[in-house]
Amino acid sequence: MPVTPSPEFIRLANHPFKLRLFLLMKLPAAFFSGVRIREMSNRHCKVSVPYRWGTQNPFRSTYFACLAMAAELSTGALAMSLIYKRKQAVSMLIVKMESEYFKKATGRTWFTCEDGEAMQEAVASAINTGTPQTFTALSEGLNEAGEKVAEFKFTWSFRVKS
């Protein structure tokens, strides 16, 4: 049985006020860091994080944890859209994270994950077989000039709740 993203969750993610309220209630660190979903569909999710006083490190660039938070949200929002309000509840959990940094992040950084369709197959497999499945999603971070700043790989585990 195929799994499709929840249109309701995608509308929530693309609605600025509802997204801010969601972040404030469920991910307050992301809210106060200025992390925002800029664009989301069933195939991709684009998230931004600004460079500002609350996200800086002592080296005048964005703190790595703030970059990781934005990158994780770009993959996690896609995962959440697949399990949101499902009749058969599915849990999701990060089991591994890898990161690589290429440039200092000194302005707004945009993280994009394009793995929505492949992630749908992993969630469908977890539901159809009843066995936990893992999926590694890639999120690439670009600066305002379009240069790659960082790359994150998050391995998600999907398991049907009993």
What this model shows, in words?
- There is one protein chain.
- With 162 residues, the protein is of the alpha+beta class.
- It has one domain (7-160): Thiol Ester Dehydrase, Chain A (Roll).
- Helix content is 36%, strand content 31%.
- It contains 5 helices and 6 strands.
- It has helices at residues 7-14, 16-26, 28-33, 64-83, 116-129, and strands at residues 36-40, 45-49, 90-101, 109-113, 133-142, 148-160.
- A 6-stranded antiparallel sheet has the order 1-2-4-5-6-3.
- A hairpin with a 4-residue loop joins β1 (36-40) and β2 (45-49).
- The longest helix has 20 residues, at 64-83.
- It is globular and about 50 Å long.
- The mean pLDDT is 95.
- It holds the Pfam family DUF4442.
- InterPro entries: DUF4442, HotDog_dom_sf.
How is this structure best summarized?
The protein has 5 helices and 6 strands; from the N terminus they run H-H-H-E-E-H-E-E-H-E-E. With 162 residues, it is α+β, with helices and mostly antiparallel strands.
Topology of this structure?
Elements: H1 7-14, H2 16-26, H3 28-33, E1 36-40, E2 45-49, H4 64-83, E3 90-101, E4 109-113, H5 116-129, E5 133-142, E6 148-160
Antiparallel strand pairs: 1-2, 2-4, 3-6, 4-5, 5-6
